[in-house]
Amino acid sequence: MNVNIYVADASHVAYADAICELVYKSALERGTGIAKRSPEYIAGKMISGRAVIALDNGELAGFAYIETWSHSKFVANSGLIVAHKYRGVGLSKRIKKKVFTLSRKLYPNAKIFSITTGLAVMKLNTQLGFKPVTFSELTDDKEFWKGCEGCVNFDVLKRNDYRMCLCTALLYDPAQKSNSKITPVLVSAGKSLIINPLIKINSIISIKSK
Ligand SMILES: CC(C)(COP(=O)(O)OP(=O)(O)OC[C@H]1O[C@@H](n2cnc3c(N)ncnc32)[C@H](O)[C@@H]1OP(=O)(O)O)[C@@H](O)C(=O)NCCC(=O)NCCS
């Protein structure tokens, strides 16, 4: 297994059908709905450089793409998929990291979000610095929420006037990141030095003054 991850381009359009099929099959297996996308839509994402593809010597291993909402104030990293035989070895982590980096590069001021019922995605986003929020913090772009129409829980969302549903919303806010009072600091753990991002400036000052 030798999987490489690329920012997709026009040369990857031939994979669009297989990606849609894999997404559809996986949604059936999970018993959830999906924001269904056509091969043409996926191809468009590739051509515009807003997708990431994982290939193992030409074989499709995984995929994810970027969508923008509310005039690019919000970005969603969507359609994460890993082919069955490549699951459980950390590939989605690599894909997520790549699509997150690409999103930050293309839209440095945008808030990045995702909504999910999946534990894997919750873990992946949390590791990248996303925080759980209520739906009120996400885009109010009607086109985004239209994507939920294919979900088995859509009636719940509608009944709650789009304010809450069964998905957890996770948000990365670049403005909050730069204002954060939390800063990485080197702390000693036995003989080695590790980075502990959870120690606040206050505690560093108090450590220094001891
Ligand atoms: C969900 C999916 C993308 C995970 O891909 P993967 O490459 O197998 O995941 P990884 O090996 O990178 O694991 C990432 C983390 O998620 C966890 N994880 C992976 N699959 C999981 C599952 N089914 N249930 C719970 N946790 C899971 C892993 O333990 C790992 O956690 P860690 O960081 O604590 O070790 C893949 O199973 C898939 O394509 N599923 C179908 C599509 C889907 O559900 N997409 C998400 C839509 S919201």
Write the layout of secondary structure elements.
Layout: E1 3-7, H1 16-30, H2 39-47, E2 51-56, E3 59-69, E4 74-82, H3 91-106, E5 111-116, H4 119-127, E6 131-133, H5 142-146, H6 154-159, E7 168-172, H7 174-179, E8 185-189, E9 192-196, H8 201-209
Parallel strand pairs: 4-5
Antiparallel strand pairs: 1-2, 2-3, 3-4, 5-7, 6-7, 8-9
Helix pairs in contact: 1-2
Bound molecules: coenzyme A (COA).
Give a structural overview.
The chain has 210 residues and is α+β, with helices and mostly antiparallel strands. It has two domains: 3-179, Gcn5-related N-acetyltransferase (GNAT) (Aminopeptidase, 3-Layer(aba) Sandwich); 182-210, no CATH class. The chain has eight helices and nine strands. It has helices spanning 16-30, 39-47, 91-106, 119-127, 142-146, 154-159, 174-179, 201-209, and strands spanning 3-7, 51-56, 59-69, 74-82, 111-116, 131-133, 168-172, 185-189, 192-196. Strands 1-2-3-4-5-7-6 form a seven-stranded mixed sheet, sandwiched between helices. Helix 1 packs across helix 2. The longest helix has 16 residues, at 91-106. It is globular and about 45 Å long. Bound molecules: coenzyme A.
